């Protein structure tokens, strides 16, 4: 008996069949209509027929394929088909194609193996050694099916595929920090970005900031917290999205005048901001709902999940991703882990097991075509250093070796007071690295980065001037 894919997988596959001119063809070749159920099966059958007749996806004509259901006023399923078509149109903007196709290939291969094994067992039980040749033929068919699923890799003649990958790879996600984005230091599918920072200097704020950027690009985000509650993480997202402080107060921020060509700082100034909304307002519940209303179609793309500190293994994370897909129909594009250093480790060998956790985190991102972002503490020496470097990573150097991108966060007490911080790109596997970025920020407003500029030696001259100006104002 042929098993079927779950509802989420079926919906993703018919979306590719209907709207994706490249991957829809693969689905049409691999997927048998029997894998689908009910209305999904009808749509799949008719989309596959359309592919066979026209060699392209039906796209806007998908509704025409099921017009006999939709336009029949007496058909009770008309509303169901309309809802499915609307969901498909929304999904077409952001299906995790690589993961969906991998799931289909694995499922199809498994079904063929089960079918072949059952047929072989039946024949051997019924005919004994007389069935050997038939069983060998069945097993040979299985091997041919495996060869069909085999992916030989990439050849240099595949120019279009390479260019399409490169263009999407560096544009799909962004950090929202201009000086990083313009140098392609961004999250990417199948890769991991690691933020290094001293305790209490903004690791969680950075992760929330990157998650917010993905939401703004209509990506699905799973934010896993091992340190603070789900509600507190949600509050930080509200603060970051809408610049809402915890308390009603006047907030001072730094502002940069930046040269458009060189991206260097020309001048500093200070702004005073008083937001009309804060979390200690008596009407915050009502006012926040108003702020959320325009985002109601994007905010469901974020799932926040807390696990107890030191309890989460990478296999546990895999199991949660499976359950989230099966029960909620949620397949993330980005996986944020706050943070790798407090996942489950072997108390007898913490360093080695931490390094292994990072490797497994990378593997999860590759398996599921996710953009992975996490953070880690720096050592005591790093916490006291004026410039945080990759060598200041706490516990295990292999974290740096495994990560695709490593960003080190530096901030003196004085810079924190001024609303300034420095980022150093310590590693970028596929891009130029070893450069610094100056950012302005305001955690009171929920903003990890307000502006960014090239960090050069003139910064410290401006910092001296800013210090003198503030001292003069205070006097």
Structure description:
The structure is a single chain. α1 packs across α7 and α11 packs across α12. 34% of the residues are buried. 48% of the residues lie in helices and 16% in strands. The chain is an alpha/beta fold and 475 residues long. It has three domains: 89 residues; 51 residues; 307 residues, Rossmann fold. The protein has 19 helices and eleven strands. The longest helix is centred in the first third of the chain and has 31 residues.
CATH architecture descriptor of the largest domain: 3-Layer(aba) Sandwich
Main sheet specs: 9 strands, mixed
CATH topology of the largest domain: Rossmann fold
User: What is the helical fraction, as a range of percent?
Assistant: 40-55%
* Inertia-based shape: globular
Instruction: Report the uncertain regions.
Output: none
One letter per element, helices H and strands E, the order comes to: HHHHHHHHHHEHEHEEHEHEHEHHEHEEEH
Biggest sheet: strands side by side, in what order?
5-2-6-7-1-8-9-10-11
Strand content: 15-25%
Structural class: alpha/beta
